[in-house]
Amino acid sequence: MPSLRETCPAKVEEILRRFPQKPSAAIPLLYLAWETYGYISEEAMIETADILGTTPATIQGIATFYTMFPMNKRGKYHIEICQNISCHLVGAQDLTKRIENKLGIRCGECTGDGRFSLAKAECLAGCSWGPCLHINGKEYLQLTPEKAAEILDSLLRL
Amino acid sequence: MGTETRVLLEHLGAPNLLRAAGYRAKGGYSALEKALQSMTPAAVTDEVKKSQLKGRGGAGFPTGMKWDFLDRESGKPIYLCCNADESEPGACKDRIIIHENPHLLLEGILIACYAIGSRNAFIYIRGEFHRGAEILLSAIEDARNNGWIGENILNSGFSCYIQVYRGAGAYVCGEETGLLTSLEGKRGYPKNKPPFPAIAGLYGCPTIINNVETLSAIPAIVNQGGEWYASMGTEKSAGTRLLCLSGHVNKPGVYEVVLGTMTLREFIEDFGGGVPGGRSIKGVIPGGSSMPVLREEQLDVRLSFEDIQAIGSSLGAGAIIVMDETVDMVEICLLLAKFYEHESCGQCTPCREGTRWFAQILEGILQGEGREEDLELMLDICRSEYTSICPLWSAAVWPVRAFIKQFREEFIQKIKEAKPSAKNVRELAKAQ
Ligand SMILES: Cc1cc2nc3c(=O)[nH]c(=O)nc-3n(C[C@H](O)[C@H](O)[C@H](O)COP(=O)(O)O)c2cc1C
Questions:
Q1: For chain B, which terminus, N or C, has the lower number of CB atoms within 10 Å?
Q2: Is the pLDDT reported for residue B422 higher than 80?
Q3: Alpha-carbon torsion B90, B91, B96, B102, what sign?
């Protein structure tokens, strides 16, 4: 795997320039690694540590603290379904069940062909428009199980 | 019939509002112009004090007073951090401003920076707001190209830069010291206070942290005066407030209201259009998931900080969650306990262990293994509420305590209904 400094040197430089103090670049660099490789690899953490002059353990400690950073490869389409109170009250459970059944996987799993992965999410701050979910970060609001099935169908056709 | 009073949301839906030009066409950036051209920083702070604006992030601390606490003599740079973490379940108000009127927030930030003497502002936005972050980045770029952000703004000698910093999924980073440690590039662990951020905040420098809604109120206060703002609302709840309504209502959404002008019940009826299917309300959480739940009988309370506080809850982050008669309150209590268990940063024992303990006991009750003593045990655990570094532990305690107090009969019924589970049977067998 080529390093971040080889793949996108300008972006690395730009991130480092943004902050009054260098360590602040840790989380943005992890974002860059995620965008570049699809997850936070061990190599990316070692390189981030090297860029910032800190230890890989420190960077791993940061990466694992934040729930959004994927430490393993995810499906091509990563679906996160909000399970928190407001979405729960308006049908998040039914929505989850329908998606799980349609994809044949449970939350926390990935389909065999690597196309879909599914996860439960804590509050996604779409509370007044629940139930809501994210697919690769794109937000879908006021879903019904039927609407979700249609969205999955359209992705399956791609 | 309650009506909306739109100050922050006034221009929502206006053409081209995401662009500086569209915002300008609606009178945008005129407050910044006024502040830079005809007011001293102290005069701006004075107007904010007169407005009696209180922080909209949850704690409700007076904004002008917070600005006054700033250590201006340290010789270190001063930072402004806009809290756009919007992490409280039920709260989704800041996103409306970010998604629909981002320049309003930028203008508020610029004026606040002028008032406190900062030239560097950060917007700490929750990682899940992917679109929000993109909108803010392009609004900043646009404002910069139009001369509202950058060096020597409007030839006033005032320079200011705004950076967007994306969180990555941690509720605790909404807490101000957690936010700062996260912004410093570490795990978002909260810190003990004092020192308060106004004395030693980001990188040890004096720092002001304000919520998105708080900062977005500043342009109107500068334009129309602090007294005008304070003339709206009650003595202790000045101005307008964004309230997000969710759960079992026909018309969920974000509404801007003058506090004190209606009751909680009227708000749910008039704006939310009541409960679907003609069902009745069982409980309402008035301020986001950490605030104590109210029973239906308590909904005739006047909608203001002080009135809701007087009946033992809080408007907190302005998130009203309605639960109808079909809701299983023990299940909801567990759902919330699990959220706080997941989000506890783990630094403090009461929070780390207590949140897990709540979840285990509640799970036990729901699985038919509850005992009546469990309720006393949970209330006993609640007594350690103020023993952690940050209020996340309190945020976990308040709902549990309130759910038990308000819906005790439902908990007892659940416990009594308990069927002997495999584990119970094993224990019974052992005891015999
Ligand atoms: C656990 C926890 C989470 C919080 N989350 C948020 C949040 O998401 N947004 C916010 O503005 N304030 C949040 N706060 C409150 C902040 O600590 C702080 O009081 C606020 O940002 C100050 O801004 P204000 O004075 O404008 O309200 C949270 C507090 C705690 C204890």
A1: C
A2: no
A3: negative
Q: Strand B240-247 relative to strand B319-324: parallel, antiparallel, unpaired?
A: parallel
Q: What pLDDT score does B76 carry? A: 97
Per-residue pLDDT for B320 more than 80?
yes
Task: Decide if B242 contacts B215 (C-beta within 8 A).
Answer: no
pLDDT, tens only, B158-214: 999 999 999 999 999 999 999 999 999 999 999 999 999 999 999 999 999 999 999
Count Cβ–Cβ pairs < 8 Å, chain A vs chain B: 139
ipTM for this model = 0.97
The span from the CA of B122 to the CA of B79, in Å, is 8
CA distances from B375 to B392, B408, B416 (A): 21, 8, 13
**Cα(B181)–Cα(B80) distance, rounded to whole angstroms?**
14
Can you tell me the distance from the alpha carbon of A139 to that of B129, in angstroms, rounded to the nearest whole number?
9
The CA distances from residue B147 to A51, B20, B117, in Å, are 34, 10, 19
Q: Which two tokens stand for residue B140?
A: 């900043």
Q: How confident is the model at residue B432 (pLDDT cuts 50, 70, 90)?
A: low
CA proximity to B52, closest of B211, B237, B219 = B237
Q: Parallel, antiparallel, or unpaired: how do β-strands B120-125 and B240-247 relate?
A: unpaired
- Span B259-283, average pLDDT: 96
Contacts A86 to B, Cβ<8 Å: 89-90, 246-247, 321
Q: Name which of A127, A129, A132 to mutate to probe chain B: the one with the most chain B Cβ atoms within 10 A of its Cβ.
A: A127
How far is residue B84's CA from residue B95's CA, in Å, rounded to a whole number?
A: 8
Contact A66 B327 (CB under 8 A): no
CA neighbor of B392 nearest in space, from B95, B87, B165: B87
Q: Are A110 and A75 in contact (CB under 8 A)?
A: yes
The beta strand positions in B32-99, using DSSP E, are: 79-84
Q: Please, which contacts does A149-154 make with residues 24 or more away whose CB atoms are closer than 8 Å?
A: A149/A98, A149/A99, A149/A102, A152/A99, A152/A102, A152/A103, A152/A116
3-class secondary-structure state, position B238: strand
**B3 band by pLDDT with thresholds 50, 70 and 90:** confident
Q: In angstroms, rounded to a whole number, what is the distance separating the alpha carbons of residues A19 and B79?
A: 12
Which chain A residue shows the shortest CA-CA distance from B163?
A18
* pLDDT, mean over chain B: 95
Residue B426 binned pLDDT confidence (cut-offs 50, 70, 90): low
CB B408 within 8 A of CB B370: no
- Contact assessment for residue B102 and residue B133, using Cβ atoms and an 8 Å cutoff: no
